[in-house]
Amino acid sequence: EPEVTQTPSHQVTQMGQEVILRCVPISNHLYFYWYRQILGQKVEFLVSFYNNEISEKSEIFDDQFSVERPDGSNFTLKIRSTKLEDSAMYFCASTVDPNSPLHFGNGTRLTVT
Amino acid sequence: RKEVEQDPGPFNVPEGATVAFNCTYSNSASQSFFWYRQDCRKEPKLLMSVYSSGNEDGRFTAQLNRASQYISLLIRDSKLSDSATYLCVVKMVGGANNLFFGTGTRLTVIP
User: Fold this and answer.
1) Which of B2, B6, B7, B43 to mutate to test the interface with A (most CBs of A within 10 A)?
2) What is the pLDDT of residue B95?
3) With 70 as the cut, is the pLDDT of residue A5 above it?
4) If you ran DSSP here, which 8-state letter would residue A72 be given?
């Protein structure tokens, strides 16, 4: 069964540093998402992406965040200047259409020290 | 008011037991409903969609009550491998972000 894959599985960074989280969605999917989950809390929406542009973003997704689909397969989330409160699991998800369930990647655990 | 509310548990049940989880949602315009399963520090995985007429998948039964804005998940004959957190997920009408997650209900099945 095709999977959404994310790298790295764990990223440790110092406060103020830039990080790029990478995702390879399922190949025939067209809608891409980033979610995050702070330890012990619920999964929260960050941003959705379709047709090479952001469809929607949440309040969490401020100017420090950006997304990109640099080629036909990768989908990246960049945090320009990380803060301690950015420490969380970041999940990429994709779907073939917005009415179908999302398929989540294995996640990247980001630790900001 | 939270969009999706679940009893956080934990539910500790013996193998073979039947256990039920409930979920309520606040927005009557909600369109689609799902149960996801999440193991510790892993990604959410779709367990099943929830249809208006109720649906069953093996030992799992999901029901929806639109009038009461209530969703349930029933697990029969619990297995050790059912131990996980069960996430109630609601999709709203319109908008790219129309997925709302509950905080999850933690289930531990005890030998």
Assistant:
1) B43
2) 62
3) yes
4) S
